[in-house]
What we know:
four-stranded parallel β-sheet
Amino acid sequence: MLLELEDVEQARARIDGRVYVTPTMSVTTLGDELGLRLHLKAELFQKTGSFKPRGVFNKLLSMSRTDLSRGLVSMSAGNHAAALAFGASAVGARATIVMPATAMPSKVQATKRYGGEVVQTEGSVLDACLALQRERDLTLVHPFDDLAIMAGQGTVGLELLEQVPNADMVVVPVGGGGLISGIAVAVKLQRPSIRVVGVEPHGADAMSRSLEGGVPVHLERVDTIADGLAPPFAGEHTLRHVEHFVDEMVRVADSEIVDALRILIQRAKLAAEPSGGASLAALLSGRASPAAGSTVVCVISGGNVAPDVLKNLL
């Protein structure tokens, strides 16, 4: 099953008032240097610091009171964890999130501050999450491979088309694929000529490998500074949507992401996390190659990075 434009429009109506309409900013001088009309969709200004609450609220507000009352469970390296904890508290539900032992302490603490219970594990977060679901009879809220989550993330695409109606290309960071799936539906079903490009780190390229193999791939090892783009597998729903709606996937090096973070701070005054810098990294490195003079929107997907981590990276 593929999402329709109506699903994303219904999601926007459902979550209205629960999330921000984030700004899209022009970056004229940098764009001129790249030979483009460049815009940044600043999802790092979203509630909890990333795009994730859009999907969470659409999912939770679509659920029955019975499922909500059982309590919620999910898995996340950080941004979905905070968003689910925030969303669950807002609708009167309890949320337990399994996070890797290596999760950034600032993201663990943020999740707890929003009211979530955090369970950290050295092993597979997926296995631990599913075990908790069975043991406590909880309702699973998947971080990306869920149509309601994907439709909620697609509201980013509705907004950016209204803000930059003449866009020729949209560049989106890709982890599990929920964000790009939703955005691509919203964009392609209104403006099929717009090129949608996904960006993964070389060390966490599950979606690219899944596209190459035609089935969801599970990576044995993930190695990237972009923890928000590091799910070790692509989803079945997200893979189908990327296959159907996304024009191209590209990979960037961690060093290229760092270069993009530096440019975002110096030139756009945006303190993005590594995941949020991946889209601009694809342009700066030449991995994504829009036509000269075209209008490009880069989605800056989050800004949840501790100052000391950002300092060390830069």
